[in-house]
Amino acid sequence: MVKNRFLDDYGDDYKLALKIANLDIKKYPNSTTFLLYRGLIKALGGDNWGAYLDLKQGIEINPEMDLFAYYKGFMAYAIKKIPEATEDFYVYTKKYTLDEKAKEIYKNLQAISKLKIVQE
Q: Is-contact 51 35, C-beta < 8 A?
């Protein structure tokens, strides 16, 4: 989805894609679509914290956007928020019971969460 909207149009120029996404969000600040695009662009560019914040904001605007929970789970894991990542994957796998990949990630996160070295 993000590749079609931004990266196909702008090649691998993440800075330009991010600039366009920022302009879209400035014009439509409550657009979950643009928050998702920008969050994914930030993730592709290595800004896991920024991606996490955009995806978190998207969920706050529309808690029913399950795709946000899926991607936010990855970003929460990347920034070492293991309990939050586990919860995000729980929310996603509860609704999408056939997604075996997400179920496996959820099981792994549960196991990681039980380790004493993991702290939020």
A: no
Pairwise pLDDT comparison (96 vs 24), residue with the higher score: 24
Which of 46-49's residues contact partners 24+ apart within 8 Å by CB, and which partners? 48/75, 48/78, 48/79, 49/75, 49/79
> Which tokens is 83 given?
């309990």
Q: How far apart are CA 17 and CA 42, in angstroms?
A: 9
pLDDT at 117: 54
Residue 73 contacts residue 104 (beta carbons within 8 Å) = no
Place of tokens 């795709």: 67
The H-or-E segment that residue 62 falls in is none
- Cα radius of gyration rounded to whole Å, the chain: 15
DSSP strand E in 10-64: where?
A: none
Closest CA to 109 of 88, 82, 76: 82
* pTM of the shown model: 0.76
75, two tokens: 């970003």
- Alpha-carbon span 51 to 49, nearest angstrom: 5
